[in-house]
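Researcher: Structure for this, please.
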Amino acid sequence: MSGGEDPTGEVTELLRQLIRNACVNDGSPGSGGETRNAGTLADYLDGSGLAVERYEPLPGRESLVGRIEGADPDAPALLLMGHIDVVPVSADRWRHDPFGGELIDGEVWGRGAVDMLNLTASMAVATRRLAVDGFRPRGTLVFLAVADEEALGAHGADWLLENEPDAVRADHVVTEAGGFRLPLPSTTPGPKLPVLVGEKGTHWCTIRVTGTSGHGSMPLRTDNALVKAAEVVRRIAEYRPTTRIPEVWRRFVEGLDLPAEIAEVLLDPAGVAAFVESFDDVGVAREVHAATHTTFAPTVLHGGVKTNVIPDSVELQVDIRTLPGQTGREVREMLDEAIGPDLAGSVEVVAANDEAATESPMKTPLWDSLQRATGALVQGARVVPMITTGATDARFFRRKGITAYGAGLFSDRISFAEFTSMFHGDDERIDQESLRLSTELWLGLARDLLG
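Model: Predicted structure, token format:
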């Protein structure tokens, strides 16, 4: 198909197939099965004229690279990167089959529809259309469909950069996800659409809570590790770290052109603390809170060996996300504060990963091109810098000194609160107008930036 035709149907069908392939990554090396989605994309791109390569560091853990070589080897290259794995799902909590890829009332349903197969599919469609149309840019365009993003990228982007750097070498990288509509008032016309220029760090850790085993028939005054672990979970969940105002948050708030009374609240630590507890839109409240706080989320608990045995050991996993500039040592100090000295002797951190927050500069050709491409599709739109509270594969490129942003373009059919709740949540879905807009964004960005 020509790049001038409406891409909605094409990107919709590709997304539905990617969802149906059910490339579920539970974090184990043998999960994911991204070969299925890599194969679907290879079949889709076949015959377009793209140079396509596939890389498989472990059986089934496959990534795909498609390339349009630039005419000038010294011209900057652009990499469009979408991951092809998805997180596990509790199917009984969904209204529709999470791997059915159903199209219902103009929305595609399924795990990965938001995170981030919608963008992966739109990037693939845009890249194929450019190739079919004979697009010959000065700089190289690379499409990367990458495995293992949902388990910190060890078998995907991280592996490629360390083992096949020439395959993914670029000056500018775009991945998930920006361009959504924020339900906040502005003093100037036109929507203010986020571009993710940085992301929080991760400090996932496993905590072991110890006790003393005994007979379950005599629980009085026992040293039950599970009971203590429950108290540790409660304390971590209720812990409230100090509010901080990172520079990227300040630039975000200033870029929104909010009424002065709202901007003042969002730039004042005390104001932020009150705002997140009282603002009606819970999606916005969560976003504001996570962007201005170190966050602690107890997520997995394992313990006990038998119903009639008092457990002597329980392991708790905690998802901790850090702000720019924070260190692992600071996190451990906060964790100790949350747990308290009375339980310190029974609690040990037995495993942790510590990845610092990353950030790209805003004054770049990529930023300017995203502004022009977005403005051409949404009248009066302006992009604003934002930090994402989750982890993306952009961090691997930033650590190599490469500018990497999270972008996209979404309609206002799905509210911000619904949109954010669907990341790793239930009833994940995306509307077709957003699929069209994102596809058109990548087409416009490639033409504008690469020439």
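Researcher: Any notable elements?
Model: The domain at 201-240+294-356 is CATH 3.30.70.360 (Alpha-Beta Plaits). The CA atoms of residues 21 and 36 lie 6 Å apart.
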